[in-house]
Design goal:
The protein has 11 helices and 13 strands. The protein has 302 residues and is of the alpha/beta class. The structure holds alpha-D-ribofuranose. The site of alpha-D-ribofuranose (RIB) has 15 residues, from strand 2, helix 1 and helix 9. Its cofactor is Mg(2+).
């Protein structure tokens, strides 16, 4: 296996709205879509569609959503040995996409909140054969910390996408990861620093390097991506596109970056590919439904 994603899965309930209702108000929305989502699952699917061998370690509920989630992993060629059934509801994410293509998301973690360090131990033999562990913050923080320690102990690179923003995240417990990939608001929350301008973002990212991180990769939406590491400070521009729905674009970026960095070991090249892949995803509706296959992506950048 190339990649172990230890993280979340959700059922995305996506409403395309004209505006959010006020307290006590009912408004009609023009469209709705049901999809497979969750930051962990999205990143796993993007990497798998590009050709990585991916193992998913996650918990689904014992409801009607669970079978569909497992079947979706299987359709995408993802190993589901450690997709664990749990006496809980599946994670769900009501999502609201406004006419400007921007999204607001509520997550209910459900079974994801029950993914424990013991689940990592149960999958230890298989995870230890992977080249990269990919993590996000829709599972308990203790499990995230344990997975990072596991990666360090076994000499496996670890990517932590600190999303959604978690004020309780202890930088001292995550600084050993190989790649740390906040967006600008997560960076601001974690550092307590402003991120309005690119120099602001640079300053904030450099404080994470000073705190012991190796590669800080800040995703900046339309402003591109900033990579800082020892001796590296590189701003890569975004690929300009007409956005239709930005939901899951960050996950498309992480999944694609994970695929290419495992395949090539070339961080700059992987960031450039991830920029293009994420940009393509915002031109289509939905989360995983907007992720290109390897063949589709090859056509885009050939
Ligand atoms: O990043 C987008 C994802 O966030 C959605 O798929 C939703 O499930 C939430 O986890």
């Amino acid at each position: 296996m190339d990649i172990a994603v230890i993280g979340s899965n959700m059922v995305d309930l996506i409403s395309y709205i004209n505006r959010m209702p006020r307290d006590g108000e009912t408004v009609e929305a023009p469209d709705f879509a049901l999809g497979c989502g969750g930051k962990g699952a999205n990143q796993a699917v993007a990497a798998a569609r590009l050709g990585s061998a991916v193992r998913m370690v996650t918990r689904v509920g014992n409801d009607l959503f669970a079978d569909n989630t497992v079947a979706n992993f299987e359709r995408n060629g993802i190993d589901t040995t450690y997709v664990l059934r749990t006496a809980a509801t599946s994670g769900v994410a009501p999502i609201f996409v406004n006419p400007d293509s921007q999204n607001s998301i509520i997550i209910v973690q459900g079974a994801n909140s029950l993914l424990t360090p013991a689940d990592i131990d149960a999958a230890a033999t298989e995870i230890s054969k992977c080249k990269l562990i990919v993590l996000q913050l829709e599972i308990p923080l203790e499990t995230v910390y344990y997975a990072i320690d596991f990666g360090v102990k076994h000499g496996i690179d670890v990517l932590l996408n600190p999303a959604p923003a978690q004020p309780d995240l202890l930088l001292s417990r995550v600084r050993a990861c190989t790649y740390f990939t906040p967006n600008e608001s997560e960076l601001s929350l974690l550092t307590g620093m402003p991120v309005e301008t690119i120099p602001d973002v640079r300053n904030a990212a450099h404080t994470l390097l000073e705190a012991g991180m190796r590669n800080v990769i800040v995703t900046l939406g339309g402003r591109g991506v900033l990579w800082v590491a020892e001796g590296v400070d590189m701003l890569l521009p975004a690929t300009p596109v007409e956005a239709v729905d930005t939901t899951g674009a960050g996950d498309a970026f992480i999944g694609c970056f994970s695929h290419y960095v495992v395949a090539t070991g070339d961080i700059e090249y992987s960031l450039r590919m991830a920029n293009r892949y994420a940009a393509d995803s915002v031109t289509k509706r939905g989360t995983q439904t907007s992720y290109a296959s390897k063949e589709e992506f090859a056509l885009l950048h050939s």
